[in-house]
Structures are given as structure tokens and as C-alpha cells.
Design a protein that fits this description.
This protein is mainly alpha-helical. About 60% of the residues lie in helices and about 0% in strands. It contains 13 helices and no strands.
Length: about 220
Amino acid sequence: MTKKERATFVINTLNDLYPEIPIPLDHKDAYTLLIAVLLSAQCTDVRVNQITPLLFAKADNPFDMIKMSVEEIKEIIRPCGLSPMKSKGIHGLSHILIDKYNGEVPQSFEALEELPAVGHKTASVVMSQAFGVPAFPVDTHIHRLMYRWNLSSGKNVVQTEKDAKAIFPRDLWNELHLQIIWYGREYSPARGWDIEKDIITKTIGRKEVLKTFSK
């Protein structure tokens, strides 16, 4: 298969498997999504979804969040890991949103990435899922699968994002990145991988990946 044919196979297979695509992180608006994505760094979405109701019960907007101390935020989000950095980031960005954006989450990559503890991936998720702007956030699942499917070199997430945007149609990015995440979790995990269930990799996977199952 050519790379374009492999990409088409991926799109068609994922559309069959996931005609409706749930968003992994629970949220009600752009602000709560921003906080949830920030908390998800080096933490599972399941754990984040357990912690955010506790945090948002006290503060689900920047005005209430700054009424809490960094230490109070840290204690609530501790199970998500990296709580000292994340709590400072949440408190700091909430101040900035109030002072600079009237309490609203800005709708640009540049403005989001200027906020404390917000990197390109977090900004991309917010732009995509909160504002519907085409983006292709790359997490560990997408990075792994783009390599397994021989659609990217796998050198780093920056290159993987460039490759994904080059091969997949722009109007599909927002849905497709979520579909790939769900597929990676269910059919092509990093550990406990069953190639027989992983129809996409089994069909189009790069040779060196498939060799591990041919011994």
C-alpha cells in the first residue's frame, strides 16, 4: 500500500469502529477542559475524571479558582501527579485569564501557549475540542500508532504531528485524533498487545513491527 492508501484504510476502519466519538476528559466548558487537560499530563484520563469533580465543586471558573490557595489546589489534585507544578499553573493561568481575558479562555494557540503550564498539546486539545479549530494533538497513543502504521518516523511528537497533518485531511483532524486515541487504548496498546485484534496494524503495519509477531 502507498502511504495515501494506508491513511485511507485508517480513516475508513476508524469510522466503522467509532462512528460516535466520546471526548475522554469530562468538562462543561473551555475553562474546565483546559484544567482537565493540564491535569492529564503524565496521568490517566480515568484518574483525572475522578479528581476534577472534587476540584470543580470548589472552583469551576477562574474567579473562584483564585480564591483558593495554591496549596489547597495542590492537595486536591495530588493524585494526578506533578501537583506542585500543576497547582501553580492552574492558579497562575486563572489570574491571567481574569486580568487579560475577562475570565474567558482565549481562542488562539499563541495565547493559550503563553499561559503557565500550558504546552502545545494542551493548547491543541482546547482549540480542537472546545472551539472546533482543526488541530491534531499528539499523545503517546497517536505517536505510537503513527509509527506502527508506517505513517511517521516516530522520531518525536513534533514530527508525528507534522506527518499526521500532512497525510490526513484537515477537516478530519478533530475527530480522527480522538478515534486514534480510543483505538490505541482498545486495540493497539503499548503493553499486552494482541496483533490479531489490531486489524489496522496487522494490515498496514511497518515490517519491523510485524516481525515481532512472526517469530
